[in-house]
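Problem 12. The chain below contains 235 residues. Write out its predicted structure in token notation.
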Amino acid sequence: MVTIAARFNGPDHSGNGGYVSGLLAAEHGAEVVTSTLRQPPPLDVGLSWERHGDELRLLTAGGAVVGSAVPGSFDVEPPACPDADEAEQGLAAYPGFRHHPFAHCFTCGTARDEGDALRLFTGPTHDGRTAGPWTVAPGVAGHDGVLDEPTTWAALDCPGGWAADFTQQVMVLGRMTAQVVRRPSAGEQLRSVGLLRSQEGRKFFTATALYSPGGDLLGRAEQTWIQVDAAGFTP
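Solution.
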């Protein structure tokens, strides 16, 4: 059994897509995992695991599939590490400071307190990517001082949504393929980057990566975001 605590929300009343995808990945155990979300993940209710060969499913008490995970792979390179100026430029231009559809989001919400959520803010740079500096607050790390895998996936989540620009269309994460090379430590200063690769109708295909200032890759992701009706995701 597993419960998604209300702290780990994306939209106000459902789980953060990256965090829930990371829960699936951590339970699955493959080095690279593709997680697909089938419905808004419910908060503070008991969920269960079910395996079918290489596929892991997260189920509600009634047996509905919340999400699934299978081994994944990459066929493209991750977005390159932004330099310090690009990261600061992106932070200053973060659109969420002016308008945020999910201001309490665990990853990128501006209405969350330091240490209670990631507060990872990425905005556009001169080359069309999103970027931002990010310092890992001790309050989001585990007892060992290191982020767990689901929280690291959460850090790889929203920079992709901002690359597709949440302010132009409300989107939720549909699918995420990610690899955690090294989990970040509390107090570590990092750089986040996001890239919009393409769009097909209501689907936006993005990529993200998390780097040390020296350019060491900590994690990367390829994502599919789906445009939704904003009315269905507001209180």
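Discussion. The helical segments are 17-28, 84-92, 149-155, 158-163. Students who got a different answer should revisit the alignment rule from Section 12.3.
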